[in-house]
Every structure is written in structure tokens, then in C-alpha cells.
Specification:
The complex is a heterodimer of chains A (659) and B (190).
Chain A (H helix, E strand, L loop, with lengths): L9 H9 L2 H10 L2 E3 L8 H20 L9 H10 L4 H28 L8 H23 L4 H12 L8 H9 L6 H32 L15 E3 H26 L29 H9 L3 H13 L4 H4 L11 H22 L5 H27 L17 H21 L22 H13 L7 E5 L10 H10 L4 E5 L5 E4 L6 E2 L6 H7 L11 H4 L3 H10 L16 E2 L7 E2 L20 H16 L3 H30 L4
Antiparallel strand pairs in A: 1-2, 3-6, 4-5, 7-8
Helix pairs in contact in A: 3-5, 3-9, 3-10, 4-5, 5-6, 5-10, 5-16, 6-7, 6-9, 10-23, 11-12, 11-14, 11-15, 14-15, 14-16, 17-22, 21-22
Chain B lengths: L19 H28 L5 H5 L3 E4 L8 E6 L2 E7 L2 H9 L20 E5 L10 E2 L12 E4 L6 E3 L4 E3 L11 E3 L4 E4 L1
Classes of the chains: A mainly alpha (659), B alpha+beta (190).
Chain lengths: 659, 190
């Protein structure tokens, strides 16, 4: 049977007659009937889809530059940040969008639970959604491993080791996951493959999710089915314009982080290259896994904790059968509503527990939180449905077309919640003397004069122990050195690099050239250790990102020495007392004194001035595109603000005759 | 039935909320701005696939040619491509200079292709489809009807002692890279 296409455009008609794709799009995205009382929480699906698409686009482009090899992965990510055109934008978008993808999905899930969107006939829709969440959790974890920093490596180790909790099969499974006897190159390689592949699976499941939704129709805040066409609106333009407006607001928030605080959700330890020999003192997952992490640690038993954590996700799959209520929306179920909000608060509390060391009150809180999480789903949900008498329901959607106050509360709570997690990661910081940095804030730029002085300090003092192996000499152009000056600096550098094999096949040393990295005195860590008495001067390429406090920490550390340790403090021989160094025992003596260098521009070289200058230089080398990033960011924000305003105008115009 | 080619919201343009034309203008303006934003946003993504700054930084190389004797050739790697640096014999130079350039497919005098007649510097990539031609003095013997230069085994293009296309499918002469003699012994390519 030939499809009878109703389109008039001959090309569209020709295609549509043979493959009714336009009819399908028209039916599902233009005419599809939505309850007219859906609120902005119904845009969370669109936001999540937008995030997924943007993650896939940025991800595919990143995959063209990334190298999945343990010796190169960390440097290849820095290569993307420094050398690839707009590579910093791709990477910062990708890293930040994962947070916002989870934020959108958490709001989406909370909405589903609040309004009973999993009840008959939407059980399968919910199941597919839970599967999407499971796939997201896996994909996000796999992706976090790829930059191959300390957090990447130890996340991979800890999470894969979860499987070792299972008796008998546990250890063989872990070995199989690793492809070796520890997390290593085979692990990184397969994680990369899986991280690339799973999003496509995810996308396919999303399509199923949408297909299922369009077969049963959208739920709405009242949880009652629309009676007829006067209670619904066509998807286009009414819902499309709302979704577009929501997308604009979403992009504004994402852009604010990407351009002005790209490492906000990250962790300084992940700017330290993976080291299988040393675990960071305090490892935490990304904020969106913290509640699961708290459940894992809350149970004082390895297998129990693992089972509880998996159970916390798996319980989502049986919600449609745990809830026995006949009424969907919690609007009409005051008791269930209180329990729901307690569950949301519970997840926030669990997240805070997950971010803290498992000590003292946090352990207790985590256990109580874990308990309530399961009680809510396994006991309260079935019981409340059976015994709670719902409040009287409106007979129809039209009858109660009022602003839903709950929405604003829910949205604000979700927003506050996500932002609240920020504080979580910033736990336990030593107060650092604060400085006024020229590069601080959205309008700040690197003070090139100061950065140049900082380079002088680095060159004359720091470079004798510390290398900048991610930074080529040519990068100095970013703080105002000319091409000839850079050539001169490289040629005069006291440390040499390997030349190409000569005609006899011998590898000789030569002076660096502008495209070479800023090498240090040591060929490798072993040599450094041998020369420095077992100490390893860290590479300074990303040091301001790799330490809590950034520039403030560097400046404080360099001037934070005290003649002698306080009474009662036991200083190891050969170490120095530093107020700001974690543990206070530092191997590096105070290197910056007054007049350690003499500045050509007449600036008085006090130790404080030198420390501040070198901190600015190190801020530049850690993030050489920061000025470009903020400059572009301001223009993007301005554009998005105007577009958001226009979109809101459109939304009002479209909805005008309905309100 | 509404057509999907209508602008956003055109169906709803009737009714209150300002004159339809004003609303129409708002819809069109927003759509145009959104489209412009999408277009501008595409550029960083496209540009990310262009050569990165570390690749561009390797755009020049220096080659020591002191040990190359007449009739010998060295191959240097530049931007991932072979560069032929051939010290020509007087016989080769003469052959290159004696050609009537009006008979050539890509007319170019030998003097336009070298800085010093003795040194011929070429990018060793066939202008047909990118294979590396081999220098084959025997098969392409000068005086035996050969051209004394390079032969591309992929599709049979033949180049003379100035690297000019003489026979076969290649449309242009082998390219001459930008280079300078830093001294008698060292050239900088790029």
C-alpha cells in the first residue's frame, strides 16, 4: 500500500510517499498532543537530550585528538587544552556538560517520582528511563578515567574493585575487567572504546524512551488524563517554544561555568598524572556519584556496601511495582509528599557524606541516610499507597489551571542542590592569605609584565629543579616575548633535549628550540630522586590547577617558611617547616629571598613580590588560554542573554491566547 | 494541514498579544538570531580539526647538506612529507636548462625552480594523487628518450631533472618548497 502523503511540496511529497518520515515527524513533533498544564519540569527531558547531543559532538571531536595510552593520555588532554584550536572549549564543554547532563536527569527523575509518571500505563517508559540512567552512570565513570590523572586512576581502581566483593567470581571478573593485574594500559584502552560506544547505545535507548512516551502520552502535574482536545496543546509551537526557552537558560548556566569556572566541578588531584604507587589522601567521585559513594561506604561490610550501592540504582527499576497508590501526583498525597522531600534531602545529605572522609558524624549520617533511602522505596512507597487517603482530585485539567507553586520550589531546590554540591568538594581548606590577582574574575587578564617577571623568577630560581614538560618555549609568546627572544631563551637554556639520531645513528643532546618543551635538569624521576636525596620536585606545568587554592597557595607556600618548627612539632631531618604545606614538612628550602633576582623593570624584588610574580607566571602556563576563554565567554554570554530574552518573548506570544 | 516549512509559531500568529505582524517579526528575528548563533558555534568545532599549534610550530626544518656529492640525493622529512634534496651533475643541469619550455605541460624554466643550479629541492609528492616518485636514473636515462628524473610507480608519471612533469597523468611539476640557504652547508625548509 502506498502511503498517501498530505504534503504539497513535491520533493517532500515524493520522499514521504515512499518513506513517510515527514508524516512521522509531523505526527510526533508538531501535532503530538501534550497536556496543556505541563510545567517547566517537562523541559528537563529536552535539556538532557541537548546535553547528550552536545556531549556526543564534543566527544567525537575530542576523540580525534585524544590518545588512549597510559604514557600519553594525560599529556594528550593537555595538548587538547593548549594546542588544538578551541581544544580548551571542546574539553571544558565536555567535562562540564557531564555534570549538567546528570543535573537535568536528576531533575527529570525526581519529577517522574513526584508526579507518579511511572504508574500504569507508563511502567515500561520508566524502565527504559532507569536503563538510561544506568548507562549514564557507566559512561560517566568510564569517561572520567580517560584524562588519566590521579582521580581517574584511583576511581578506576576503586570502582572495578567493587566486583571483587562477590565471592568466587569476584577476582576473576576484576582481572578480566582490567585485562591485567592492575588498572593499566589495557584497562585504559578498553575504557576508551566503551566510553565511545556506550553513548550510541544510550542514544538508541533514548529513542526507545521517546517512542514509548509518544505511545502512552505525557503525564502532567495533576496526574489525571486529559479528557479531550481542549485540555491538550499541540507539541509545536507550544511545547517546542517552552523547551527552546529552557534550553537557552540551560546554555547560559553551562556557558557561565565553561567560560568562567571550567574546573569548578573537577578536583585538583586530577591535574596530577596517574601514579599507581601513591593514592591521594582523599579520593572522592564527581558530585553526581557522591550519594552512591556514601551508600557504598555507609555499610561496614565490603559485599554489603557493594550490594547496597548496586541496589540503590536497581531499586529504581521496580518503583512502578513498589508504589501501590491509585493517585499519581503527590500534589494530592500530603504524607507521601513529605516522605518524597525527605528522600530528596536524604540524597543531598548522602552527597555531603560522600564528599567527606568517612569519620565521626559522617559515618552515622551516611548510615541513617542509606537506611532512609531504602525505607522510602521499599517500605514507605508500598504502605503509603495502600493506607493514605488522597485529597480530592479535580475532575479535569481545565478545572484547575492554576500556577503550580510546587514547580518553583522543586526547580529552586534542584538548582540550590546542584550548586550546593560545589561547597562539598571544597572541604577542609587551610585559610590562605588572599591576593588581588589581575587574572581573577570574569574580566581579569594575565598581567603580562608581572608574568614576565614571574618567568624570570622561574628561570633563575625554580627551573634548576622543576621542569615545565607540558609547556613549549613558544608558549612564552602568550606573555609578550617576541619570536627572537624565545629563540634566544631556548638556545641559552641550561638543559638539553635529545636530538634526532645523527648519520651514525647516535642520539646526541642539543639545545632546545622554540617548539621543544621547557625541560628540567633531570632525565627522569629516578635521576631526580638520586640527585635530590629521594625528593621529587613536581613538574610545574599545571601546578596552580593541581593544588587547592591555586595561585594563592603557590604564593603562600613560597613565603610560608618559619625559622623553626613550633614547640612540640617533630620535624624530620632535612625537611623545613612550612605553614601552608600539607603536613608542614616540606623538602624544598625557602628559595625566594629578597633580591633573589633583580628585575629589569625596576620592581623591588622582595620575596613576596617574587612569589606573587612566579604564581602569575605559573597561572599562565597552567591555563594559557584563560584570557581568550574569558574574552569569548563574555561575548557568548551576551549573545545568549539576548537570545534568551527573545525566546521568552516568543514563548509569551505563543502562549498568550491560551492563558 | 500546516506545512513543516512554516516558520516557528506561524500557526499561532492569529489572536491577541500584539498585531500578528509584530509577533511574526519577533519569531523571525529570534529564529534568525538562533540560526546565526548555531552557525557561529559551528566554527570552533570545525576549526578544531585544523592543524594544532604544535603542528604549525614544526613548519620549518634545517638540513645539513655538506656531505652530499654531485649526483647524490638526500631525503628530508618535512611536515610529514619527503623533501628531495638533489645535488645535480652538470649533465643534469644542462638537460634541465636546454628544454624548450613551450613544449612542457606545466611551463617553467629551470632557473625559476632552483636558487643555485647545483641544488634541486623538491617536495617528493606526485602532483597526480600523492605517491612518492622514485629517482630512477637507469629507466629514465637521459639521451635514451628518458627524462633523467623521477618516475612515479603508482600511475607512471615521469619527471625530468628539474622535477617537471614530462609524461603521464600528473598535471603539474613537482612542487618546490620555500627554502633559504642559511650557509653553504645548511638550508632551512619552510
Amino acid at each position: 500500500m502506498v502511503h498517501d502523503s498530505k504534503f504539497t511540496n513535491p520533493v517532500i511529497k515524493w520522499i514521504d510517499t515512499r518513506l513517510p518520515i515527514f508524516t512521522l515527524l509531523q505526527r510526533e513533533y508538531l501535532e503530538f498532543q501534550m497536556p496543556r498544564n505541563v510545567n517547566y519540569l517537562w523541559a528537563s527531558g529536552a535539556l538532557a537530550t541537548l546535553a547528550l547531543v552536545m556531549l556526543m559532538v564534543t566527544g567525537i571531536l575530542l576523540s580525534m585528538q585524544y590518545t588512549a595510552n597510559t604514557t600519553m593520555a594525560f599529556a594528550s588532554v593537555e595538548h587538547i587544552m593548549r594546542d588544538v584550536n578551541y581544544g580548551w572549549l571542546l574539553r571544558d564543554l565536555h567535562a562540564n556538560l557531564s555534570s549538567f547532563f546528570f543535573a537535568a536527569i536528576y531533575v527529570h527523575m525526581a519529577r517522574g517520582i513526584y508526579y507518579g509518571s511511572y504508574q500504569n500505563p507508563r511502567e515500561l517508559l520508566w524502565l527504559i528511563g532507569a536503563l538510561i540512567f544506568l548507562l549514564m552512570v557507566m559512561t560517566g565513570f568510564l569517561g572520567y578515567v580517560l584524562p588519566w590523572g590521579q582521580m581517574s586512576f584511583w576511581a578506576a581502581t576503586v570502582i572495578t574493585n567493587l566486583f571483587s566483593a562477590f565471592p568466587v567470581v569476584g577476582d576473576p571478573i576484576v582481572t578480566w575487567l582490567w585485562g591485567g593485574f592492575s588498572v593499566d594500559n589495557p584497562t585504559l584502552n578498553r575504557f576508551y572504546t566503551l566510553h565511545f560506544m556506550l553513548p550510541f547505545v544510550l542514544l538508541a535507548v533514548v529513542i526507545l524512551h521517546v517512542a514509548a512516551l509518544h505511545s502512552v502520552g505525557s503525564n502532567n502535574p495533576l496526574g489525571i488524563d486529559p479528557r479531550g482536545p481542549d485540555e491538550t496543546v499541540p507539541f509545536h509551537p507550544y511545547v517546542t517554544i517552552k523547551d527552546l526557552f529552557a534550553c537557552c537558560v540551560f546554555l547560559l548556566v553551562v556557558a557561565a561555568f565553561v567560560f568562567f569556572a571550567p574546573t569548578y566541578w573537577g578536583h585538583p588531584d586530577n591535574f596530577i598524572p596517574a601514579n599507581p604507587m601513591v593514592t591521594p589522601s582523599h579520593i572522592v567521585p564527581e558530585w553526581y556519584y557522591l550519594w552512591l559513594y556514601a551508600i557504598l561506604r555507609g555499610i561496614p561490610d565490603k559485599l554489603g556496601g557493594t550490594v547496597a550501592m548496586f541496589g540503590a540504582v536497581l531499586v529504581l527499576f521496580v518503583i512502578p511495582w513498589l508504589d501501590t497508590a491509585k493517585v499519581r501526583s503527590l500534589k494530592f498525597r500530603p504524607r507521601a509528599r513529605v516522605c518524597f522531600w525527605l528522600m530528596i534531602i536524604d540524597i543531598v545529605v548522602l552527597s555531603f557524606c560522600g564528599a567527606r572522609s568517612p569519620e565521626g558524624v559522617w559515618v552515622l549520617l551516611a548510615r541513617v541516610g542509606t537506611g532512609y533511602y531504602f525505607v522510602y522505596f521499599l517500605i514507605l512507597m508500598p504502605l503509603l499507597g495502600r493506607f493514605e487517603t488522597p485529597r480530592p482530585m479535580p475532575a479535569s485539567i481545565l478545572e484547575s489551571l492554576k500556577k503550580a507553586a510546587g514547580v518553583a520550589v522543586l526547580a529552586t531546590a534542584a538548582g540550590a542542590l546542584t550548586l550546593g554540591f560545589a561547597g562539598v568538594a571544597q572541604a577542609e581548606e587551610v585559610a590562605l592569605p588572599s591576593h588581588t590577582w589581575h587574572q581573577a574574575g570574569p574580566f581579569g587578564t594575565i598581567d603580562q609584565k608581572q608574568a614576565k617577571r614571574g618567568f624570570q623568577v622561574y628561570q633563575e630560581v625554580c627551573s634548576h629543579c622543576h621542569a615545565l614538560t607540558l609547556v613549549p618555549f613558544r608558549a612564552l609568546a602568550g606573555i609578550g616575548f617576541t619570536e627572537d627572544q624565545i629563540k634566544e631563551i631556548a638556545a641559552q637554556w641550561p638543559y638539553q633535549v635529545d636530538d634526532e639520531p645523527n648519520d651514525e645513528g647516535k642520539v646526541l643532546k642539543r639545545a632546545p628550540r622554540p617548539y621543544d618543551r621547557i625541560v628540567g635538569p633531570f632525565a627522569n624521576d629516578k635521576e631526580a630522586g638520586a640527585v635530590m636525596g629521594g625528593l621529587l620536585p613536581p613538574d610545574l606545568s599545571v601546578i596552580t590547577k593541581a593544588r587547592h587554592g591555586g595561585e594563592d597557595y603557590i604564593a603562600a607556600l613560597l613565603t610560608g617558611y618559619q625559622e623553626s618548627a613550633p614547640a612540640g612539632f617533630k620535624l624530620i631531618d632535612g625537611r623545613f617547616y612550612n605553614e601552608y604545606f600539607p603536613g608542614h614538612q616540606i623538602g624544598m628550602p625557602q628559595m625566594l629571598q629578597d633580591d633573589s633576582v633583580s628585575y629589569a623593570d625596576g620592581t623591588k624584588a622582595t620575596a613576596e613580590q617574587e612569589a606573587e610574580d612566579v604564581a602569575v607566571f605559573l597561572s599562565f602556563v597552567a591555563d594559557p588560554t584563560q584570557d581568550e576563554r574569558k574574552h569569548l565567554g563574555l561575548r557568548v554570554m551576551l549573545f545568549l542573554l539576548v537570545l534568551t530574552g527573545l525566546m521568552y518573548g516568543c514563548k509569551r506570544a505563543v502562549w498568550h491566547d491560551l492563558h | 494541514m500546516p506545512s513543516i516549512t512554516h516558520p516557528i509559531g506561524a500557526d499561532a500568529a492569529e489572536g491577541g498579544g500584539g498585531a500578528p505582524s509584530r509577533r511574526h517579526f519577533l519569531y523571525l528575528g529570534t529564529a534568525a538570531m538562533g540560526a546565526a548563533g548555531l552557525g557561529a558555534a559551528a566554527w570552533p568545532f570545525i576549526d578544531s580539526m585544523n592543524p594544532a599549534s604544535d603542528t604549525l610550530a614544526l613548519a620549518t626544518i634545517e638540513v645539513n647538506i655538506a656531505s652530499v656529492q654531485p649526483g647524490q640525493m638526500i631525503v628530508a622529512a618535512w611536515q610529514g612529507k619527503p623533501v628531495f634534496i638533489r645535488r645535480r651533475t652538470p649533465e643534469e643541469i644542462k638537460a634541465a636548462q636546454d628544454v624548450d619550455i613551450t613544449t612542457l605541460r606545466d611551463a617553467e624554466a629551470d632557473s625559476a625552480r632552483v636558487q643555485k643550479p647545483e641544488w634541486l629541492i623538491l617536495i617528493g609528492v606526485c602532483t597526480h594523487l600523492g605517491c612518492v616518485p622514485m629517482f630512477d636514473g637507469n629507466a629514465l636515462h637521459l639521451g635514451d628518450g628518458g627524462f633523467g628524473g623521477w618516475f612515479c610507480s603508482c600511475h607512471g608519471s615521469q619527471f625530468d631533472t628539474a622535477g617537471r612533469i614530462r609524461k603521464g597523468p600528473a598535471p603539474r611539476n613537482l612542487s618546490v618548497p620555500r627554502y633559504v640557504f642559511l650557509s653553504e652547508a645548511v638550508i632551512k625548509i619552510g
